[in-house]
Every structure is written in C-alpha cells, then in structure tokens.
UniProtKB/TrEMBL annotation:
This is Olfactory receptor. GO terms for cellular component: plasma membrane. Pfam families: 7tm_4 (PF13853). It comes from the Eukaryota. GO terms for molecular function: G protein-coupled receptor activity; olfactory receptor activity. InterPro entries: GPCR_Rhodpsn, GPCR_Rhodpsn_7TM, Olfact_rcpt. Residues 46-296 form the G-protein coupled receptors family 1 profile domain. Keywords: Cell membrane, G-protein coupled receptor, Membrane, Olfaction, Receptor, Sensory transduction, Transducer, Transmembrane, Transmembrane helix. The chain crosses the membrane at residues 30-53, 65-87, 107-125, 145-169, 203-227, 248-267, 279-298.
C-alpha cells in the first residue's frame, strides 16, 4: 500500500467535506459556542493541572501517576484535534474541509482515541500488580517497563489507525461537496458518504474496533476480577476502602470511554443512527476528557494534597 498518495486515490475531482450545522438559530449557535468553548478550556486546564502536579511533586513520581499524566496529555491532544475546527464551524456558512484535511483529522482522532483505550488497559494492569502483588510492585513496574508500555500503546494505535484511514480514503466520494452529518471526520459518517461498496471497509472497522475496544476491555475486566478477589481478602476495612476508592476512579473512566465508543464503532450499521452517533460522540469528545481530571483529583487524596500544597505555596510566595 502506497501511503503518501492514499488521499488522492480513485478521486475524479477535488472533493471537499462540510459538517452539518448543529442549529440555524443565531442564539443557539452562540450558546453552543460558549458551552463548547467553556468545556474545552476546562479540559485543557484540568488535564494540564494533573500533568503539572505530577511533574512538580516527587512523591507522585510513581507508575500510576506517570500513566495518569500521559493519559491527561492524550486527552488534551485528542480534544484539540476536534474542538477548534468544530468551534469555527458553529457560526455562519459551512466552511469546507479538503479531503486531505479530513483524512488527517480522522487519523489523529482515531489514533489518539485508540492510544487512550490501550493506556486505560495498561493502567488496569498497574493497579492489578499494585494490589495483587504489592511486594513485587517496584520490581515489576520499573520506569523502563512503564515507558515501553506507553510507547507500545501509541505504536500499536498508529499501526492500526494508519491502515484503517488509508483504506477508507481509497474509496471514491462522488461529487465536489459532501455533507457529513457530524462535527468531525469520524469513520462511520465518512464511510456513509462513499459511492462504492463498503462491506470490506466495514469489516476492517469492526476488526480494528474489537482490537481497540473489546480486547483491552476484556483485559481490564480480568484484572479487576483478580483485584476484587484480593481486596475482599484484606482484613482492614480502611485498607479495603482505599483500594476500592483508587480502582473505582479508573473504572468510572473505563466504563464511560469504552461504553460510548462501542455504541458508535461496534454496533451493526443497520441499527445505527447518524444523529445518535453525533450525540454519543459529544460524550467521548467532551465529557470523558473533562471527567478524567475531575474524577482523579476529587477521589484521589495524593493529588488533592499536591494541589493544595501548590496553591498554598503560591499564595505564600505572593504574600509580601
């Protein structure tokens, strides 16, 4: 497969895409713009705060917080591939995006989203080792292994998503202007616009979806079966509470991320609705990246203490 030219294959003319507007009401457009902008700023601030706290506090330099800071960085990149373009299209006339631009957005969006899913599975393994094998935790979860796991997650996502995106954009798209019933160049809505048989492409999408969503989710479930069994054997009620508190934060993010993505990418095409897909996509574009810092800070004593310490030291330095 010749990757550099995949965007232009089978194209009779320059195809451009436009995103369907959320609403034609100027008042609603203004409200949606402010809402999405506020959520985006909160996502940037919350996830940046986690990265900053982990990097500036030595007692947080453990595998769990290393993975958490990488997850926050992914969330920032993930939303940034979508939201700025989305905000620019809320007002006024529909602004076209060229075929190459659509392909680039799809590639980065699905790659970062897939890396996110793999990283959540890695975080579940980290909790499994910490709770089920506490005496060997530092020997198993070395800095080298943690780095290899993060790089491996990104590498696997790049490999799968590059092939998927290249395959989709070998399809012909009839006409000069194509309207996508979505706010981004996601895989399912773009496939619906192809004027050719997409059965093979749908099959590849399901295979990639199983590898990215189903397999990591099963690994997470297996990890939590062992974790729950171990926690129930802890005699101290306080020990059980702390273990469950740490794991419940991660599990909340997992269920929201995998649940919403599965509804979009793994449902049979006959049972999917374009409007439903767009609504669900709003959840994993805005809600999940926003809940990540909220859940991990509000339910994590170490992160809360680090934030309080940073704020108190800043206040003290500003006091004359």
């Amino acid at each position: 497969m010749v990757l550099p030219n995949f965007i232009h294959l089978n194209q009779s003319g320059p195809t451009e895409f436009v995103f369907r507007m959320f609403t034609s009401s100027p008042r609603m457009q203004a409200l949606l713009f402010l809402l999405f902008l506020l959520l985006y700023v909160m996502i940037l601030c919350g996830n940046t705060a986690i990265i900053w706290v982990v990097c500036t506090h030595t007692f947080l330099r453990t595998p769990m917080y290393f993975f958490l800071s990488n997850l926050s960085f992914l969330e920032i990149c993930y939303t940034t591939t979508v939201v700025p373009l989305m905000l620019s299209n809320i007002f006024g006339a529909q602004k076209p995006i060229p075929l190459a631009g659509c392909g680039a957005q799809m590639f980065f969006f699905v790659t970062l989203g897939s890396t996110d899913c793999f990283l959540l599975a890695v975080m579940a393994y980290d909790r499994h080792v910490a709770i089920c094998h506490p005496l060997h935790y530092t020997l198993i979860m070395t800095q080298k292994l943690c780095t290899q796991m993060v790089v491996g997650s990104l590498g696997l996502a790049l490999f799968l998503c590059l092939q998927l995106t290249a395959l989709i954009f070998t399809l012909p798209f009839c006409g000069h202007h194509q309207e996508i019933n979505h706010f981004l160049c996601d895989v399912p809505p773009v496939l619906r616009l192809a004027c050719a048989d997409t059965q093979v492409h749908q099959a590849v999408l399901y295979v990639v979806g199983i590898l990215v969503l189903t397999v990591p989710f099963l690994l997470i479930c297996i990890s939590y079966v062992f974790i729950t069994t171990t926690i129930l054997r802890i005699r101290s009620a306080e020990g059980r509470r702390r273990a469950f508190s740490t794991c419940s934060s991660h599990l909340t993010v997992v269920l929201l991320q995998y649940g919403c993505c599965s509804l979009v990418y793994l449902r049979p095409r006959s049972s999917t609705s374009e409007d439903e897909d767009r609504q669900i996509a709003l959840v994993y574009t805005f809600v999940t990246p926003l809940l990540n810092p909220l859940i991990y800070t509000l339910r994590n004593k170490d992160v809360k203490d680090a934030l309080k310490k940073s704020m108190s030291s800043k206040a003290a330095s500003e006091t004359p």
